[in-house]
Amino acid sequence: MPELPEVETYRRFIDETSLYQTITEVEVQDPKRQLQVDLDDFRKVLRGNQFTGTQRIGKQLFLLTAQGPIVTMHFGMTGDVGYYRDAADTPRFARAIFHFETGFKFAFIDSRKFGRLGLTQSVDTFRQQKKLGPDALTLSTEELTQGLARKKSAIKPLLLDQRIAPGVGNWIADEVLFQAQLEPERPAHTLQPTEIDRLATSIREVLEIAAEAIYRDFPSHYLIHAREWDEAPSSTITNAHLNCPRCQMLIQKKYVGGRATYFCPNCQM
């Protein structure tokens, strides 16, 4: 499933390839399933229009247009984007194609068809309707403090709450808590201001690195390298996969809020 770092990569890709080109046609392969508005209305809004910029809140992407209405994109389980010119290069699972006057095309790709396209009049309106909090990539200490105020639940599931930090997925929450040295089941209301500040900083840093790096190239002190063993064949398991990159203690796994959670019992006390 595309997480915030992947969607941020898509956003930057669109900015580099698909802006300020007049849209001449829009194809949607399965509008009843993947389009949240009427196909004729969708085409009417976009023909003759241009994408002029992008915004993102968590895993939700917005394509701004010259004439006002904004295209919303959610990538579901397998969503991706593409940009090409020749029909022979059309991505196999292109579900929506925006044809540009230049001859190039922008594609919304989705092999399993769980992604959704729609329209909204403003990002703020959409955010209020979906009850989304401030984007996790730019989340400030003040915003996180407000989101966690008086919450007595464990901090791990709260980080997955899109009303608090939209875009933080399961493995990212584990990484953030590891970098902030906080125990996943710690009640949020017990966090001190310095700890919330450390947590907010870790959220931003982890997501920024994730948006720039291939997972295997993450810094050596990241917990993600110790998570790989869970999916690896037993014959490939070594102590290096199981140990904390900081203290070398065995990484543990438990379920917090129903989600598999990896943590170091020594560093995250």
From TrEMBL:
For this protein, what is any one GO molecular function term? oxidized purine nucleobase lesion DNA N-glycosylase activity
Listed under catalytic activity are: Hydrolysis of DNA containing ring-opened 7-methylguanine residues, releasing 2,6-diamino-4-hydroxy-5-(N-methyl)formamidopyrimidine; 2'-deoxyribonucleotide-(2'-deoxyribose 5'-phosphate)-2'-deoxyribonucleotide-DNA = a 3'-end 2'-deoxyribonucleotide-(2,3-dehydro-2,3-deoxyribose 5'-phosphate)-DNA + a 5'-end 5'-phospho-2'-deoxyribonucleoside-DNA + H(+)
For the keyword Aminoacyl-tRNA synthetase, the answer is: no
* SUPFAM superfamilies per the UniProt record, alphabetical: Glucocorticoid receptor-like (DNA-binding domain), N-terminal domain of MutM-like DNA repair proteins, S13-like H2TH domain
Which key words tag this protein in UniProt?
DNA damage, DNA repair, DNA-binding, Glycosidase, Hydrolase, Lyase, Metal-binding, Multifunctional enzyme, Zinc, Zinc-finger
Kindly indicate whether the keyword tRNA processing belongs to this entry: no
Q: Which domain of life is it from?
A: Bacteria
Gene3D superfamilies recorded: 1.10.8.50, MutM-like, N-terminal
Q: Which residues form a coiled coil?
A: none
Q: What EC number(s) is this enzyme filed under?
A: 3.2.2.23, 4.2.99.18
**Ranges for domain FPG-type:** 235-269
Formamidopyrimidine-DNA glycosylase catalytic domain location is 2-115
Which GO BP terms sit in this record? base-excision repair
Instruction: Give the required cofactors.
Output: Zn(2+)
Similarity field: Belongs to the FPG family.
Q: Report the NCBIfam families cross-referenced here.
A: fpg
Assembly with partners or alone: Monomer.
Protein name in the entry: Formamidopyrimidine-DNA glycosylase
